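This section describes the prediction task in plain terms. A model, or a person checking by hand, is given the sequence of a single protein chain and must write out its three-dimensional structure as a string of tokens. No templates, partner chains or ligands are provided. The sample shown here is typical of the held-out split.
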Amino acid sequence: MNPLATVLVGVITAAIGLATAFAAEPIPIDSRRELLVDHYLIEKTDGQAALRLHSPTPREIALVFDQPWEGNSCGAYNTVFADGDRYRMYYLANHQILQGEAPSHPIFTCYAESKDGIHWVKPELGQFEFAGSKKNNIIMWDGYNKDSEAIIVPFKDPNPDCKPDERYKAMVNIQSALRPLKSADGLHWSQMSDKPVITKGAFDSQNLAFWDPIRKEYRAYVRDFHDGLRDIRTATSKDFLHWTEPQWLTYPGAPTQQLYTNGIMPYYRAPHILLGFPVRYVERGWCDSMRALPELEHRKSRSARSDREGMALTDGLFMSSRDGLSFQRWSEAFLRPGLRGTDNWAYGDNYQTWGLVETKSAIPDAPDDVSLYATEGYWLGKANKLRRFTLRKDGFVSMHAAFAGGEFTTKPLTFQGGRLALNFSTSAAGAIRVEIQDADGKPIEGFALADSSEVFGDDLERTVTWKGGPDVSRLAGKAVRLRFTLSDADLYALQFQPAK
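The expected answer:
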């Protein structure tokens, strides 16, 4: 072998060795709550174990958009977040006209609030005049600045360096570019800059930003068209004024689909994980099934102006990311249009909230739910609605196994803490067992599967025990694997916590 070939072989061998060593490096989860929304921790599955997407449960109508300054296409870009002892909601107020109708008013951004996330009021803010009166809840209107759009997604900034008059922030589209807004109280807004800060994008939908507490930066997710299809770009900033060049999101393994909004946010119980709730836009075309959907005559009247407005459909998706750029996106719907004879299966329905809030369960003594909201009855009559939906905490995706059973094993990881807690649900006959292995997959003495007590029931935070008890502190900081066996069970999340 000539000297050059020898050098190349050596370089390649070293590279392979380095890659192998890097791949074997344990994942440091420390004491973070880890949701099983993706395959990040999972190395292999066996039997009937597989990740399963869960859909939210529909609850009551949260708001009806029946005021004169609202209309039949409100709430499409809805924002909800908890703020101290109240919940805040911001929503788009619009009335969509059909062919031959005149617009009744400009587009507004309106404000509502709640003490429990279930019962909402529209306070009289007295900021803007409508029909000769300031008795309304309008906080912004289309055209307040030349060529601006009243579509904002406010957030309360947890950045410790945030100035008091910038405690609330948002982006607004002015002349086809985004400019930053600030507010001291979340109601009165002004521009942080008279120049655009993000210029690459279409921006004709929901454009949002937030403070990422893990990466210590602001992240923006904006609407654009990618190869002619509706898609999402992201940019980052340290000061909300100077932003990186927007990059396209990627969805490894997911089919190409049109995403109307994105709904991306840090999950408040595990902020290192970003969750997204995009709206999927689908043009199915006119066919027998399209004509069999609810409210055919109204669908035809919408098509008189634009065919796609009569036959396009929208539903809700779910996706998650560890880096904010690459998302595991489920192709199956998170929020289906549903089995109703009215107010569904139309372009503009099922637009999901930006924001998740905790609310009291309708079941006595049950833990709080996670609530989100979505539109229905879009373009129908003079008013549409916003419905609340609920899930259990962390309940977006689970590792599920049928009664016949299945199992999965994690990649090597390190943790901090003295006990392992699970968010799980089983049937009366189902169960979960946990084995702790060393990095090579060998059961650790005292933590083998045979030593594990059966875990059954339904709990958000159940401590796993073995014959020697629940204490795992002697393994903290060491590379281990977790092996789970499941039968008629769902595992939503796990977390190593301090010993009790």
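For orientation: Residues 95 and 127 are 21 Å apart (CA to CA).
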